[in-house]
Amino acid sequence: MTQQVPKISIKNIKKSFGSKTVLNGLNLDLFAGESLVVIGGSGTGKSVMLKNILGLLEPDSGSIEVDGSEVVGINSKEREKTLSKIGMLFQNAALFDSLTVWENVAFPLVQGKKASKETAKVAAFEKLKAVGLTEEVAELYPVEISGGMRKRVGLARAIVTEPEILFFDEPTTGLDPIMGDIINDLIVSCVKTLGATALSITHDMASAFKIADRIAMLYQGKIIWLGNAKDIRNSGNDYVEQFINGRANGPIKMEFRKI
Amino acid sequence: MVLALQSYTGFARFNAEGAIANVVVLSITRELAPVLAGLMVAGRIGAAMAAEIGTMRVTEQIDALSTLSTNPFNYLVVPRIISGTIALPFLVIVADVIGVMGGYLVSVYKLGFNPTIYLQKTWEFVQPIDIISGLVKASFFGFLISLLGCYHGYNSDGGAQGVGRATTNAVVGASILILAANYILTEVFFSNIQ
């Protein structure tokens, strides 16, 4: 990577919930056009990190910059401006139950960009087609479709505004391996077509290898390893070794407590 | 209807049966319609709001709204509060009419009052302030119900259990606030008159 301004720059953020420290001085730079995957066990603060960048949670200290401008502690107007650059696929897709599939996909255009319903509908159908969903599905409600389809709809909704930055929160969790791979392929192709910068969090190594240019390992609120995806097999780091090989025994001791 | 019957048995003890029409219309427009409708709506709509918004919260739909450059507060809460404030008075108008009708039916068909005189007394006795105060109360209660429903739903956490708790809190909180606000509003409206 050359010396460019990082698309997203996280500097020394800390976040605790009560006495439980979740992020403990996390540093991470994300460069334009790359796909970075953050891996880490359950409860190591991966989702909390994403929520801090999105402004859904406020870090206790530290700084987060998106495109060189600070996003910690900004007002809601500036926040909206920042968020309009970001598309997010939630872990459970987080589709709006009260809207049909295509209305869900059209939502960011109608609400965020104030597009007319007709243009939004055309764009929504186009994106649904891009993620491999037919027009019959578009008229259904989110509760009427399968988990894999919901993920696809969530993906279509995330890319419909053609954002510069895409976040994926455990894109393959809860899917069978084949559907997981299909979603991975879709993510890769979406990120490529948009030329977007992607930040994903996952604990599914197959998914990480597929979509990552670089991989970062999060453990106890810090990045303990960061490198190219192909180098992770020879990381020489006991923690990373244990995680990617999925061994119960090793330096990582699971804490059986939910955040 | 019960009110007419009860007032009759009570008033009959001191030969004041003639005042039933007045008692019925006053108590319904001023108190019973807004308070009972408020409590019912708190159980029905307030709970529904808390459950719906609470579910949206625990399934990350509210987070999704913010990431889609939509202020979840403006999108979810404000319209509900406005509609709650506007809708309840209309419900109370219906309750007023039905309540007075019920009193009329019991008085005329069971207690043998003259229908014309009963209606005439009702009309003569009721003042605009009686109805208006009831409607103002209703819109205030509607505001409280939707506010508490949204507040508890919006701040719910902890999965299905959290949503259940939010619903309970919304109904209980709204009911208590309705009863308390009712006293205060009555004080405001009627302490200077009499």
How would you portray this structure in words?
- The complex is a heterodimer of chains A (259) and B (194).
- With 259 residues, chain A is an alpha/beta fold.
- Chain A folds into two domains: 1-85 and 166-259, 3-Layer(aba) Sandwich (Rossmann fold), CATH 3.40.50; 92-162.
- In chain A, 36% of the residues lie in helices and 24% in strands.
- Chain A has helices at 46-54, 76-83, 101-112, 117-130, 135-138, 147-159, 177-194, 205-211, 238-245; strands at 8-17, 20-30, 35-39, 61-66, 69-70, 86-89, 165-169, 197-202, 214-219, 222-228.
- The two termini of chain A are 35 Å apart.
- The model of chain A has no long low-confidence stretch (mean pLDDT 85).
- By secondary structure, chain B is mainly alpha-helical.
- Chain B has one domain.
- Chain B is 86% helix and 0% strand.
- Chain B is built from seven helices and no strands.
- Chains A and B meet through helix 2, strand 6 and helix 3 of A and helix 3 of B.
